[in-house]
Design brief:
This protein has 216 residues and is an alpha+beta fold. It has 4 helices and 10 strands, in the order βαβαβααβββββββ. The protein has a single domain, classed as Jelly Rolls (Sandwich).
Length: 216
């Protein structure tokens, strides 16, 4: 990412991401990643238009074999890249599952073709990991560019005071986003990261993964 990150974002390796989130000013731990060659080839060579959305809740330690069975049942074509995707999701699930008091993880994987989540918002949960495997990544706001009083009013102009404060996660990177129910100190906590799905134009699509930390 060539430009400076906002103060509410810490860039860290995966093994230090949860530690980064303990900082009161960190609402997003951004993990730079390089996808495997098999997964990259899989993502570039297919449209996945026949695949069904996956939305399941599983124990945090679910292994890659079980995840690949889910992908197969959803119609993801057999390929070494499918195996690589299952392994990658398992690794990310382990990361989310290491958050204290997390008993299970809700996994959603879907091909996004609409602008249904175009409004900036926060999540009503402790923590969500997002990764856009293919296409434009999740966008989030610098706190200095954000007016939280405008949230929930269906108007991005009431939330975003400065469009230069909009940042976008790179394709393939992972972001651990604090939600409104983050379990850290409540005093001074502004609320979860303000973010949205990026605008999509006709013919564009994203392959999007989210993993929600669910309490015991």
């Amino acid at each position: 990412m060539p430009y400076p990150l906002p103060a509410n974002t810490h860039r860290s390796p995966a093994e230090q991401a949860l530690t980064a989130l303990q900082s009161p000013d960190c609402l997003l731990a951004l993990i730079e990643r390089q996808l495997s060659p098999d997964l990259t080839a899989y993502l570039r060579g297919r449209q996945f238009s026949g695949c069904q959305p996956v939305d399941v809740t599983m124990p945090a330690g679910t292994d890659s074999e079980a995840l690949e069975c889910l992908l197969a049942a959803a119609g993801y074509p057999r390929h070494p890249g499918r195996t690589a995707m299952a392994a990658d999701i398992a690794t990310l699930m382990d990361l989310v599952g290491n958050l204290p008091r997390t008993g299970s993880v809700r996994m959603r994987l879907e091909r996004v073709t609409t602008n249904a989540c175009r409004f900036f918002h926060t999540d009503t949960l402790p923590l969500r990991l997002v990764c856009t495997y293919r296409g434009a990544g999740t966008e989030w706001l610098d706190d200095d560019a954000c007016d939280r009083s405008g949230l929930g009013k269906g108007d991005n102009a009431k939330i975003c005071r400065d469009r230069s404060g909009i940042h976008r996660m790179p394709e393939g990177w992972a972001g651990l986003m604090k939600g409104n129910r983050w379990a850290g100190p409540a005093e001074g906590y502004p609320g979860g990261l303000v973010h949205r799905s990026p605008p999509l134009y006709p013919g564009e699509w994203r392959l999007f993964l989210s993993l929600d930390a669910l309490p015991d």
